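In keeping with the milestone schedule agreed at the kick-off meeting, the structural modelling team has produced records for the first pair of proteins. Each record is given below as a sequence line and a C-alpha cell line. The laboratory manager (R.T.) confirmed that both were archived under the project's standard naming scheme.
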Amino acid sequence: LTELEALALRHNPLTLQASALSRHAARLTLSFLHELGRLEIERLHLFNESLPHNIVRLAKMPDLNLDGFCLAAVPARFCTLKTLQRLNLCRNLLTSLPDAFGQLEQLVSLDLDHNQLTALPGSIGQLKSMTRLSAARNLLSSLPDELGGLEALVDLNIADNVLHELRDSFCWLESLKVLCLRR
C-alpha cells in the first residue's frame, strides 16, 4: 500500500482494539503510508480511544477525517502534522485540545462538533489560514481572546454551546461572513 493516496473506512462496523493488532500491522497501516493524501476513519472504533503513535508519520496528509472515532484526547505530537489543511474531529469524546494546536499552521477547516469541549486553546489564534471553524454542540462557555486573530475566518459555527458573552476581540474577525450562534 505504499502508493495509496486515499483510504476511506466510513461507517464500517469493524471494531478493533490496539492489542488485537500486531506491531507489524500497526506499522504497516501508518508507518509506510508517508504519501497518503487523505485518511478517513469515520465512526470506526480503533486504538482504544487514542490515536496511534505512528500517525505523525503521515507528514504530507492535507485531509484527516476522524469523525465518530471515540477519541478521548488529541496528543500534542499530533500537532506536528504541518501540512494538515482539513481536520474533522466531530462526534468524539474530546474535552480539550492541546496548547500546541496552533502549530497546525496550514489548517483551513476545523470541525469539532458534538464533543465535550469546555474551552478552545488560545493557540487557535495562530491558525492564520483558517477560513472555517465549527465547534457546535460542545460545552463552550467562552471563547479565547486569541480567536480574534483568525483574520481569514469566514465561517464560524458555535451553535448549541453554553456561551455567556462574546468578547471584544470577536470584533477583529473582519472576514467573517457566516456566524451561527443559535441555542
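The second protein of the pair:
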Amino acid sequence: MRQETEFEVKLSPLRVWGMLADLRSYRYWHPRYVFGSDASLEASIDFSFLLFGERRVKSDVIITDLDKPREIGWQLKVSELLACFEEHYVVYPDGTGSRVCHSMEWRGITQIFFVRASNKLMNFLEAYDAAFCAYARRATRSGPTPNRHVRRSTLATQSRRAAND
C-alpha cells in the first residue's frame, strides 16, 4: 500500500533537502520519529517511533536514498514477508521555492492493517507535511540575535575609557 502527498515550501531545494536530511531535528516537527544519528547512504541508523499512545517501538532503518539536493529515503524491514516500510522525500525546484513529494509504502502481511486505516495514514502524512512547512518557516525567520542589547564586560569599558583620555 502506498500513500503520497505533495506540498510547497518557499525555500530553495538545497535548504529544504538539508532540513529533511538533518534526521536529528525531526523531533521538532515529527514527534513520532526519533533518529539516532545523521544520514549517510546505506547506513543503519537507530530509530524509534510512537506506534500506539506513548509506546515507542525501536528498530534500525537503512538509508536507501541520499541524493543531495534531491532525495532522501529510508527503509525499515522486519522481514520481507512480515513488514517492510519505506518513506521517501523528493524535492523539486518550483519557481522561487520547492515542491516536495512525500511518500510512504507498506509491504508484507502487516499491509492488511494499514489498508483499513489508509484515510488515517493520509491524514498523518498531511499533518506532518504541514508541520514541516511550519518548522521551515520558523527556522528561516529566526536569524542571528542582534548585538545591541548585550552588555559589555567591565574590562572592555575600562580600556575604552583609558584610550579616550
